[in-house]
Amino acid sequence: MKKILIGLLVMIFTGLSAQTPVKSRKIKGEWQLQIEVAEAVAEETKDLGVFGKMLAGAVAGFVDVALESVDVVFDFYNKNSVRLIVKTDGDVPEIENLNYRIDQGKLYITGLEEGDIDISIDGYWMFEEKNLIHFNEDGSRVKNVYLIRRR
Q1: CA 21 – CA 149 distance, rounded (Å)
Q2: What CATH number is attached to the domain comprising 108?
Q3: How many separate helices (H) and strands (E) can be counted in the chain?
Q4: Is there a domain that residue 3 lies in?
Q5: DSSP letters along 88-100, please?
Q6: pTM higher than 0.85 for the full model?
Q7: Mean pLDDT, 10 residues at a time, over the chain (151 residues)?
Q8: Which residue, 39, 93, 102, is CA-closest to 69?
Q9: Which domain, by its residues, includes 68?
């Protein structure tokens, strides 16, 4: 009986964090890009010495402050079309029209490499709970980069 209960709990908790396929109707609207720089730097520098951690922390702080003034939004407005909107404090937003496709439940955004906005996001996105999580082409998760629904 204990084995069954433990097995059931493992399946439930594994399922809670599992990725779910993307469906076109679920992504309509605006999604804001989130990048957790401090967390990413902390993970990558855990093996460094004190001086390396201090330097990395200072750089991460600078990047965090810079990112606070930039708002990157993906607006999925109709079948296979998405607008990339980049707003910075006080500037006119830059808008790039892109395309997307859903292949085997994975969301691919195409056209980023061709536009005027310099942003590099390769790979695909899948749902994890309510957020769209970024993955590399090889299936590895891109830590600390995700999209949250804005509207």
Answers
A1: 16
A2: 2.40.128
A3: 4, 8
A4: no
A5: ETTSPPEEEEEEE
A6: no
A7: 38 50 93 78 57 52 56 92 90 91 95 68 92 95 92 68
A8: 93
A9: 20-149
